[in-house]
From TrEMBL:
GO terms for molecular function: metallocarboxypeptidase activity; zinc ion binding. This is Peptidase M14 domain-containing protein. Residues 37-376 form the Peptidase M14 domain. It comes from Adineta ricciae (Rotifer). Its cofactor is Zn(2+). Keywords: Carboxypeptidase, Coiled coil, Glycoprotein, Hydrolase, Metal-binding, Protease, Signal, Zinc.
Amino acid sequence: MILSSFHLLKFFILTFLTFACFGKPHRYQNRCLEHDNHHNTEEMLAALDYIHAQCPDITHIYDLPLRSTENRPLRVIIFSDQPKIHEPLEPEFKYVANMHGNEVVGRELLLRLAEYLCQEYQNQNEQIQNLVDNTRIHLMPSMNPDGWEIAAEYAWNTTQDLAFSDISTMMKEYGAKDWIMGRANANDIDLNRNFPNLDKFIYAYNHHSHHKNNHLDMETFRLLLKDHDCMKKPYQIETVAVAFWIMKSPFVLSANLHNGDLVANYPYDTSENNHKQYSGSPDDYLFRQLAEAYSYAHKQMSSPGQRCDNEHFKDGITNGAAWYPVCGGMQDFNYLASNCFELTFELGCDKFPPGKELKSLWDDNQHSLIQYMMKTHIGIKGLIRNEEGESISNAGIKIYHIKDGELNYIDHDVKSNLDGDYYRLLPDGLYAIEVNSLGYKKAIQYVTVQNQINQVNAQRVDFVLKQATMEEINRQEVMKKYWK
Ligand SMILES: [Zn+2]
């Protein structure tokens, strides 16, 4: 009897607590997500569930089909007005954090960002509602959950003499100080050196008059299945899962969140000879603008002066290879294997700061995280169809920048998605857009791009392709064989 009363009391307490977390009809109360401490894997997954329960109509949770080496889920939360589907003409965005397991600020910021998007959407914050309604946003707080646990456990085991009462207090007051422990995955492989090194193809192709600078899928598959990465290590399950996710999803823009410095890093991450030197991509000007979108909106990243060690980054941005060359990074893989443009943001000198510092780190980054997502909507987008109104997928979209009466090819084509929709991030300027698809005549349109601040719809440029003649199709087939 005493036992059952106890259970009854426990039931009422739990019911009350659950109600306190989930029972809010209008305003979010921040009762369940801790803002001043780190979340271990279990807590991180619970936090995502909690946010989904708060905003079920605009969120969707899914796992990548493969789990981490130690069998932890690689979990993603989506925000959108139709979170479960890709809507044609609605671009997709992603943030990936905690790829290096001991670089943990991005992981906590993405949880906080998810909570913020949910809360502000419900509070009818116009900018957030517009962003969520017109974008499909994927947040992966941890790409390397095993590494996080290794870093946390090592920190706990090496701080026994500091006499923290438990690991949670240690996390909050002290964090983790080791520079390396937990960086790699459970097989001790650095995931940000473990992607297929597509840069080497680009530099090799540059010596030919005809080459390819996008969607290097066949090479990717071959490398993933048979070979080793550029550090001669086997491809890891986390890398394979994320590589296929990148290639299969219609992402337009993305960022990979790290720690250890304070800077926005943009492609390329390697130079031709692997020396430390500036190595811009064909979209160099655009990438610099995207990097500045983050660094300028950040409270400290772009301010002058020395940051973490002796390095000084003008405007808080750097070309990857000019800083230090990295082969097999995820950033360049996105650009060269898919339609997605990715940058890497280093969110602070301290890799695993005390949890009590997370509130001010959120203050530093909140505006940047939002401003960068807004950039998913710069440039142009549209539908590509035939004269019968059917969608044309996999059409190639070439961009020529028109300057001083000259057409300058930006040597990086994007492709249309299954629904025939395409997206091309572009800075302001005059452009010729050329669309090619096998069996159809080439089509060209001229557009002036003038991006507005905080626009949530890129300029619309649709194409209706006309059927090619038999002679033109034969010529296309011959050219296709020639390129192969
Ligand atoms: Zn890192």
